[in-house]
Amino acid sequence: MKAPCVRVERERGETTRRELAESDLIADDLEIVVEDDWLYVPITDPDAVPDGFKVVEHDVPTRETPDMPADILGFEPTYERLGDIVLIDEDDAERARDIADAIVASAFPVKTVLNRASKIKGKTRVRDWDVLAGDVTETVHREYGCEFALDVARVYFSPRLATERHRVAKQVEPDERAFDMFAGVGPFVIPFAKRDARVVGTDLNDVAVEYLRENARLNGVEDRVTAIAGDVRETTSEYEDWADRLVMNLPHSADKFLDTAVALTGDDCVIHYYDIQHEDDPFGPGETAIRAAAEPEYDVSVETRRDVRSYAPHELNVCLDVRLTR
Fold this sequence. Notes:
Blueprint: E1 2-9, H1 13-22, E2 33-35, E3 38-42, E4 54-59, H2 69-73, E5 80-82, E6 85-88, H3 93-105, E7 112-116, E8 129-133, E9 138-143, E10 146-151, H4 162-169, E11 177-180, H5 189-194, E12 198-203, H6 206-218, E13 225-229, H7 232-235, E14 243-248, H8 258-264, E15 265-278, H9 284-294, E16 299-312, E17 315-325
Parallel strand pairs: 6-7, 11-12, 11-14, 12-13, 14-15
Antiparallel strand pairs: 1-3, 1-4, 2-3, 5-6, 7-8, 9-10, 15-17, 16-17
């Protein structure tokens, strides 16, 4: 069957395969093909492939061995992979158990299967989990060449936003001063720093900040990362007029922090403002709030209006890339 593949010289094949696997981009239900001097690695998301790889359409066979969860179950379950942990979201306990058993029996290199037991709760944005297989909630997740140590029971992390994070990270220039106001374990901070930016990340969750520091060391960027525990409104006065780039990924509540964001903004700054709004007007409330906080001190220019994902029926998780110029 025709499928998108990364085409690479055979001598670079294993290195490429490992890099794509670390970013969870290899299509596990399709075979890797070798033809002449080329290797064709089938991928799941062409838009998420890192720069420098060539993506082509190519004929690749499906795997003949029934080693995927869907092969065992007879239907395609919904799940997310986070390192060697698999996350599912099932209200039916029996169906959740069946999916977990199939995942464990499949070819996935999985240690733990968790089912969501609550919504995200409290200021530290964690949730409860039911453990269906294994007993470890700590893992190392790989995404676009970065590694993130985390404990899903103690910090917030969404693998669904990998493509969005990569989109933003590609905009970062060397020596930029970037600030993530709700940094978590560093999924924005670390790739920014790997692009040679100087980055400050804050978070209310002390555990997340400790993982942020660990991840800076793990990725070799500790000299470019400053991690601060506490409420960004109370802990960052020394960074006023500092930032060239700001990330505000706290949907539902980011508008309450816009005065602080403006205080952190330098003479020319791009704010990546994340919001959740009704589909009838997903961008208007955020843009209105940003203008109210920034004008007339800054000229406000919306550079990108982007649907990130569907959040709930008739609600969208969106991003506004907004440039503030003093």
